[in-house]
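Notes from hallway chat w/ T.B., transcribed later so I don't forget. T.B. wanted the structure written out for a chain they're using in a teaching module, and asked if we could keep both sequence and structure tokens in one place. Agreed to drop them here.
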Amino acid sequence: MQVIETLAEGLKRELKVVIPAKDMEARMNERLEDAKGKVRINGFRPGKVPFAHLKKMYGKSIMAELVNEIVREKPTEILSERGEKSATQPEIAMTEDEAEADKILNATADFEFTLAYEVIPAIELKDVSGITVTREVVDIDEAEVNERILKIAESARTYETKKGKAANGDRVTIDYLGKVDGEAFDGGKDEDAELVLGSNRFIPGFEEQLIGLKAGDEKVITVTFPADYPAANLAGKEATFDITVKDVAAAAEVEINDELATKLGLESADKLKEVVRGQIESQYGSMTRQKVKRQILDQLDEMYQFDTPGRLVDAEFENIWRQINTDLQQAGKTFADEDTTEEEARGEYRKLAERRVRLGLVLSEIGEKAGVQVSDDEMQRSLFQQLRQFPGQEKEIIDYFQKTPGAAASLRAPLFEEKVIDQLLTEVKVTDKTVSKEELMADDEEEGKADAKKASPKKKAAKAEAAEGEEAAAPKKKAPAKKKAADDSAE
């Protein structure tokens, strides 16, 4: 077998592989000899079929099998011998000329094919002991824990139907139909909707106009959607809602006790407090972790500059770009609405894709050299987390990960990355700093203020860079008047 390098330009490689016809014929003959004693052909005793007849009947099909085996197995072997790693699956090209292909199958012409691929650049790891990060830590006080428990208790409180007018804090059950310019709009209709007055779950001005109504009352209220409402067709628009009140219920007293804990599936109020404290610690811990990770990645980005495989960058860019366009479409907006152009946005996201690929390669090299492994148990837990997000679709999801090439890698990659970050945290200099929760969230809040002035694509790019490899899409909302309620469960 001859391997001839025909292109070596940057990270691009192209190889011409030639296997002489005589070698192909020798392999075919070995297969035919092995099959000689096994095949059954009418008119011949087992093992007595003339070789020429056997070759005439089965030669081409065996040669086709050999060709398929070679193009499936040889590229990996060739790259290994060259000490190269391909960034993506190499492209394999063979002759498309039928006459030439027939000669190959008849072992009268050399079998030739080409491999085209991009190599993963050699990365010389640098000393990371000079990397310094500040780990912001929040001390959680009892007041915050009690405040969270109170919210949970309020969300779990019971209501009893009452006679008379609805007051702030009461729960009303209503049917409503929203209209703009006299026409009903999508998502603006609901029946038996339960709303606690004063919860601010609906757009401003909606709940206040229900105070004083009683069961059986009908009323048309007028509100104005906020200018920044996610549904572009409703943002800033005046709307009317036809309201029918079906029930008014008063809230029972909130009591934080063992009975409440039992209702939430816990054995005692003390256990409830413990669980809530753990939730808060986990939330702040995630924010701390993300900030630490961002600092590490930013410094690694400054330390490593090299050409990245174009195909990997293209694939990463397409993933990002597809999400951006989906978000804009769902929001009913264009790049012009976001004070940018498609060309500018493409350039910005291309840079982000290059950064992600480069850092991904660096982390992969660091992890490989450190012997970082993702265990089967960790993969299994990750899969279970996926299953929990899509109840009722467990079989389809399992089938997808079992049968789709590369799907398992999508589970492994984030696990591997986090373990590499853990490894780096043992090597870099980490300084703990106690901060308030406001300080911990300050960066996000500042970014939020800037978002009002910056284009949405730019905002998402900034967030994506801050949370490398994680989704940073803006919240997706339909047109209904409801705002998303905070999840204060104690699960």
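Follow-up for T.B.: The radius of gyration is 32 Å. Might be a good example for the class.
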